[in-house]
Write a structure and sequence with these properties.
The protein is mainly beta. Helices cover 10% and strands 35% of the residues. It has a single domain, classed as Cupredoxins -  blue copper proteins (Immunoglobulin-like, Sandwich). The chain is built from five helices and 26 strands. The strands form seven sheets. Strands 11, 12, 16, 18, 19, 20 and 22 form a seven-stranded mixed beta sheet that branches. The protein has a five-stranded mixed beta sheet with strand order 15-26-23-17-21, with no helix packed on it. A four-stranded mixed beta sheet has the order 2-1-4-6. Strand 13 and strand 14 form a beta hairpin. The longest helix has 14 residues.
Amino acid sequence: MISSDLRKRLLPVALAACGLLAGQAGAAVYVQCPGDTNGDGIPETPTPGVVCKHLAAGDGFSTMADGKVLYGFGFSDITGELPADAISKGLLAANFAAPTIELKEGEQFYLTLTNVGMVVRPDLFDPHTVHFHGFPNQAPVFDGMPEGSFGINMGSSVTYFYNITEPGTYIYHCHMEATEHMQMGMLGQIYVRPAQDGTTKTYNGKTYNKFVYNDGDGSTGYDRAYPIQLGSMDHNFHDASETVQPLPFAEMKDTYAMLNGRGYPDTVNPSSLPTPTVDGASVNNDNESQKISALITASAGEKILLRLSNLNVTNYYTVTTLGLPMRVVGGGAHIARGPGGKDLYFDTSSVTLGGGETMDVIVDTAGVAPGTYFLYTTNLNFLSNNDQDFGGMMTEIRVQ
């Protein structure tokens, strides 16, 4: 691993590679957001129904549950930063998992992506994109696919526009050199709440005002929601990418399986994990990279919505909630209903997701004894943090 001292010396090299030293930063970053006059992505005059966000794409480090520090690529949220500061704030700030984005049906979404470059690998001039996976009727220019769109070069910004029309659970990722960039950590969740949210509907004697879909009858009502991103990493691939080009893709063998970018027991830490360190020194420019907890809590009798997604490039994963009933009400951002409107919801003890799949699962705690339950993968070889047993893709569901 590159020493922290060398990494600090590489910061100005990366900035110079982007042409962003000595007052040039403002010329490189351009944010489009209605009502925003200073370019920070926050409108001084908000427009109802318009949402803006500014992400940076770059590199950084994350800490596995056994203490190993892994190099990776990723996105970070720099909404609120002025253009002159955006590049420096996005350096060595990659998040794993990427920031979760929450939207509502009917909103217009402006998403600016700035490629801040690679501090650890300034020799890599990789472009990046955002691919809103599963989004319907997307304009090709905003799709992020290199074949029909374009990549964003180092030091440049592009604003994507989406007219949010369909509720459900989605994912987003970089689609440039997709296998490499996704393995390296450029993965996140987007979910869209339905227009029905905020109304009240009674289903089976209980009244709800939050719903997974526009069900019309309250059957997808829930009390608490948790986006849970399934993923895993090949530490050999990440270690090699810190100094050389990546290993052959066919040789990927993931060794760290995680939920929301953490292995157990880090999954149940309700706070951001500390900034990664090597020999007592921060290797992430003091930035926290693993901010999303996977701990699930509820009061007895509540319904928990699990927005599950698998963003892995190598494995299918099966997950279960031992001792708690699961009902699948949708998948791929579509409610589980037939053409004639018949409910196709189903009860199950486990669900299996392949790479790029999402699933909406409601866990009902009615009649369940208070206590600690587990959400975990039945792929038992992934209940470990590399060689360390009793970890990996597992978290706790605490019913109080």
